[in-house]
Amino acid sequence: MLRRLLPILAGLVVVLLLTLLRLSDPFPVQVLREIAFDFYQRLHPRPAGDFPVHVIDIDERSLAELGQWPWPRDRLATLTDRLTELGAAAIGFDILFAEPDRMSPSRIAATLPGVDAATLPDYDRVFADALSRSPSILGFSSTVAGKPLTGNPKGGFAISGPDPSAGLPYLPGVAAPLALLRDAAPGLAAVSLNANLSTTAVRRLPMLWTNGSAIFPTLSVEALRIALGIGAVVVFGDTAAEGYVDSMRIGDFTVPLTSEGDLWLYYSRPDPAMLVSAADILSPNYRQFADKVAGNIILVGTSASGLLDLHNTVLGDNVPGVTVHAQAIEQILSSTYLTRPDWVIGLEMVGFLVLGAILVVIVLQLGPIAGLLAGGLCLGSAIGFSWWMFVSEGAMLDPSFAFVGLTLLYLALVFFRFLTTEQAKRKIRRAFGYYVAPSLLAEIEKKGDNLKLGGDIRRITVLFSDMRGFTSLSEKTEPQRILAILNTLFGALGREIVSRMGTIDKFIGDAIMAFWNAPVDVPDHEAKALRAAIAMREKLAQLNGADAFQLRASKAPVEALGIGIGLCSGEALVGNMGLETRFDYSALGDTVNVASRVESACKEVGYDILCAEPTYLATQDFALLEAGALALKGKAERVPIYLVVGDDALAGTGAFRLLRTTHAEVLDGLRHGRDVHGGIAECLALAPQVEPGLVKFYEQLPARRADFEVQDTLQPLTPDIAAQ
User: pLDDT tens digits, residue range 74-89?
Assistant: First the structure.
C-alpha cells in the first residue's frame, strides 16, 4: 500500500512546493501575472465613453507653428486665460516649471548693463497672475536628486481608519514649481509615474504620495478635486493591516486602491477626439473649441516625441503621459475599476492546491492521457472563472500561475510516471520476457498496475504437453543429443503457445505447462488454448516430416516424436510464489491438476489432444467429440473429457458433421449395451478424412465401454445436435 501511495505523496509535495513559490511571489511570477492581466485588457478594454476630460496637446504641429519648447510663459499665460475664459472646470499642467523663464524680458535685461529690468515684463509673474485667475494645478516630479518637498498640499486630506501613510510611495526629493507659481495656482499635484510600476508598461498609477509628513495627490486626483469644488479628499486606511490603503473618496466618488495607494489602470482605446492641439487654443479662432473646454477637466501635456513624455500602455499603445492621467480621471468618473483584493490571493493558492491535488491523483492513477484531459478541464475552468470575474466584477484573478504551475506539475508527473513505469516494465520484461508473446507482454506492460504480487484467483485455461517415448529415447541417446531434441521441440511448440497469448509456466523434463488469461485478461482464452494445441500437433507433424530431430538420420530408437496434450479451464490461484529474491510465476489449484491428469489420459484414450468439460462448454463451435468419463487420479468422481479434433473451420465440414453423428450413435450404443461394431467401422472409415489420429481412438473404444456406462449425468452429442 505504501509503495502505491508514494508516487501520490511525491506529487502532492510538488504541488506544495509550487504553492510556496506562489506565496513568495518572485519577480518572474509577478511578470507573468501582469502579462495575463494585460492580455485580459486587450481582449476586453474599458468601454469608451463621452467624458468631460480633454487634453491640450503640445504636439508637433504646435511646435512647428509656435516655436520650439520651452515656450515663453506669457504664451502659457495666454493659454491659461483662454481655457479659463472658455469655462474649464480644472486645468492641470503635466509640465514642470522648476526654473525661471529664461526668455522673460526682465530676466534678460538683468544681464544687460544700463537696462532697468523692473520696467520690463516678468513672464513668470504674468503666468502666475493667469494661474491665480484660473482653476489650475501645477505639477511636481519625484526625483532623488531634487530637494525635499516642503509645505502642505493645496487641498486637505482626511484619514478614516488606520493611518496609511507608511505604505504610500515616498518622495525623497522633487522637482517643484517656482514658489511664485506654486503659490498662485489653486492646486498642486504629482505628475510622476512610479518607475517601479512602469518598467514595460504603465499598469498602475500612484494616486497618493507622501513626503513623510503630509499626503500629496497625483494630478488626476487634484484635477477632480478642483473640478468638483471640494476642499478635502478622504483616505480610508485598511482596517485589516495598519499602514496600508484601502480606498479614497473624492466627493461622491469612492475609488478602490491597492495597499500602496495605486489605481489599477483600466484602459480604453485611445480616442483622438480627446486631444486638442495647443496651436488651436492659441490661434485667433480658439472660441470654436469651447465645446471641448467648457465644464471639462483640461490637462495640458505634450505628445511631441522630442519632449520624451511617451509611455507604453497594456493595450500596446505608445501614448503621452498626460493621457494616462486623463484615463485615470475617466475611470473614476465612470466608476469602472480593476481590483485585486487580498482574498483573491488566498483563493488563487487554495484553488491551485485543489486543482493540483486532483491532477496528481488522475495522472498517477489513470495515466497521462486522462491527466491531460483532466488538467485541460481544470485549467479551462480556472481561466474561465478568472475571465468571468474580470469581465463581470473587474476582479483580477491570476490565471497565469495556474496555467504555468499546472503545466509544470503535469510534466513533472508524466516524467515521474515515466520513470516508475519504465522501472515496472523492466521488472515485468525480466519476469515474463521468456514466457509470453510480445503482444501479451505489451498488454502486461500497459496494464501493469493491475498486476498483483502474491496470489490472485482467476479463471484460466491450463495446458499440459508431454512427449511420448521420451524414456526409451533418453536411455539410448547421449544427453547432448537429448538436449538438442528438447530445445528444438520446446522452441517450436513454445512459439505456438506464446503467439496465441499463452504464458509458458515451466518446462518439466520433456513436458510443457502453459496457461491463458493470466497475468492479464485474454479474451476467449479457451479458444486460444485449443488453437495453440491444434497448432502444436500440426507443427510436430511438420518437424517429424522434415526429420528436424534427426531421428531417422541417426537411426534413433524412434523415427518420430509424439505428444499428448491435456487442457482444462477453471479457477486457479495465479501469482508469484517463492522468495522475494527468487520466485516463480505459476498457477495452483484443481484446474491445474485436472489438466495434468487429462494429459496423462491421452495414452488410455488413444488420442493426442483432450480437454475437460469446462473447456468444451466454452468452445462448442470447435470440432470436439465426447471421449467418455475417466477416473482420474485424485478425483472422487469420473471426469468427462473430449477429443479436440480441430478448429471451427473443420467443425463446419460435411465429413466432420457426418462423423459427429455416427460418433454420437456409437456412444449411445455403448451406454445401452447395444452392438456398436458397425458404427465403429463407419467411424474408422470416416476418421482418416477428418483427423487420422482418431483411428487409434476408435480401435480402443470397445475396450472402454465402462467409461460410458457410468455417465448417466452426461449430455452426449445426439444426432439432432450434430445435425445443427
Answer: 999 999 999 999 999 9
355, 305: one domain: no
Is the model's pLDDT at 519 over the cut of 90?
no
Instruction: Please check whether residue 160 is in contact with residue 187, taking contact to mean a CB–CB distance below 8 angstroms.
Output: no
Residues paired with residue 53 on neighbouring β-strands, in sequence order:
297
CA angle 30, 32, 36 (to 5 degrees): 115
Query: DSSP letters along 314-372, please?
Result: TTS-EEEHHHHHHHHHHHHHHT---B--HHHHHHHHHHHHHHHHHHHHHHHHH-HHHHH
Q: Residues with Cβ < 8 Å from 242, sequence gap 6 or more?
A: 162, 163
572 with 681, same domain: the answer is: no
Cell of 375: 488538467
Task: Please enumerate in sequence order all residues whose Cβ is within 8 A of that of 12, keeping only pairs 6 or more positions apart, or say none.
Answer: 356, 357, 360
Buried b (16+ CB within 10 A) or exposed e, 141-153: bbbeebeebeeeb
Domain around 364? 2-29+340-413
Distance (Å, whole) CA 300 – CA 84: 13
Q: Which residues pair with 587 in a beta bridge?
A: 574
* Domain final position from 276, 307, 334: 334
What does pLDDT average to over the chain?
Answer: 86
- Is 318 in the same domain as 387? no
User: Cα 428–434–438 angle (5° rounding)?
Assistant: 70
Place of cell 500500500: 1
- CA–CA separation, 380 vs 393, rounded Å? 19
Q: Are residues 12 and 62 in the same domain?
A: no
User: Which pLDDT belongs to residue 425?
Assistant: 63
pLDDT tens figures, 370-421 = 888 888 888 888 899 999 999 998 999 988 888 888 888 888 888 877 777 6
275 is a domain residue:
yes
Task: Cell numbers for 696, please give them.
Answer: 487409434
- Is the pTM higher than 0.85? The answer reads no
Report which of 344, 378, 340 is spatially closest to residue 358, judged by C-alpha positions: 378
Residues 236, 94, single domain; the answer is yes
Q: Note whether 339 and 396 are within 8 A (CB).
A: yes
**Other C-beta atoms within 10 Å of 637: how many?**
10
